[in-house]
Design goal:
Helix 6 packs across helix 8, helix 6 packs antiparallel against helix 12 and helix 12 packs antiparallel against helix 13. A hairpin with a 3-residue loop joins strand 1 and strand 2. This protein has 279 residues and is an all-alpha fold. The chain folds into two domains: 67 residues, Arc Repressor Mutant, subunit A; 190 residues, Four Helix Bundle (Hemerythrin (Met), subunit A) (Up-down Bundle), CATH 1.20.120. The chain is 58% helix and 3% strand. The longest helix has 22 residues. The protein is built from 13 helices and two strands.
Length: 279
């Protein structure tokens, strides 16, 4: 193990064991280095690394402190790295969202109050007839973040923030705009909101699954993944609109949700949702 890695591990053990707690100030550099059996240079490198991932907070002239260790704070570094994912891996991030976000939406159905639901609706209402992509991204981010926060689980909310930041959402919305699917996408937002207002956790879960699975398949098509064209439910040789022609969907990854099956679960395809939208 490299000397700096050893220093990081020793500081980590002090925090995990409870010797250092959130908000605690670290001992003076010379004292801590002697206590841990490290050189001061190795200790400085370890502190620098841990501050970058928001474990420690270095305050000039005041000392070094353990941060609050809140999930959102600790996952910020992961979100920064996630923004660098390549286009071809974007659907894989959506696939993870497809697992997590419907659960968060179902949890929010019993927790969001009327004031919070009104705020979500007002954000959707504020969009004009032809909003620019920046406005769509901002609205999308606030809408889904508000629902995730309503789940009452800060770890789940932070993970979803990491998986679907502004960079990822901008990529998805550009595909939606190119294919003229804005109305269908916003319809799915309204359907999710309607299920939340009805306090119907299973309908909210199902509409969230439709919404994200649609975006996942739309991205796969835009990226022209290898494979035979398929319709939503995976039948080979049939295109998205049910005819043999342009715009084939590519096969979803193994285990991907069937959009058709989920739509049937919530009572039909729904007006304007035949090709789905963004997440």
């Amino acid at each position: 193990m490299a000397v700096t890695d050893e220093a990081i591990e020793k500081i980590k053990n002090m925090i995990v064991s409870g010797v250092l707690r959130p908000g605690d100030r670290l001992p003076k550099e010379s004292e801590l280095a002697a206590e841990l059996g490290l050189s001061r240079n190795s200790l400085r490198e370890a502190v620098r690394a841990l501050s970058l991932i928001r474990i420690l907070d270095v305050r000039q002239g005041d000392g070094t402190y353990v941060t609050s260790l809140d999930p959102h704070l600790l996952l910020e570094a992961v979100g920064f790295v996630a923004d660098f994912h390549r286009d071809e891996t974007a659907p894989e991030f959506l696939a993870v969202r497809r697992i997590l976000e419907p659960a968060a939406t179902a949890m929010a159905a019993t927790r969001l109050d009327e004031r919070q639901l009104d705020a979500l609706e007002a954000r959707l209402d504020a969009l004009g007839d032809a909003p620019p992509v920046e406005e769509l991204v901002a609205c999308d981010l606030e809408f889904h973040r508000g629902i995730a926060q309503g789940s009452g689980n800060p770890v789940l909310c932070s993970l979803l923030d990491v998986l679907s930041g502004p960079a990822a959402r901008t990529r998805i919305w550009r595909v939606v705009l190119q294919e003229g699917a804005v109305a269908r996408t916003l319809h799915e937002h309204r359907a999710i909101l309607g299920a939340l207002r009805d306090r119907d956790a299973e309908a909210a879960r199902s509409w969230a699954t439709v919404h994200i699975a649609s975006a996942e398949q739309r991205l796969r098509r835009a990226l022209r993944c290898d494979g035979a064209p398929v319709r939503f439910d995976g039948a080979p040789g049939v295109f998205a609109h049910g005819e043999r022609g342009s715009h084939p969907f590519t096969p979803p990854c193994k285990g991907a949700a069937s959009v058709t099956a989920v739509r049937r679960k919530v009572g039909g395809s729904g007006e304007g949702t035949s090709e789905g939208g963004t997440g």
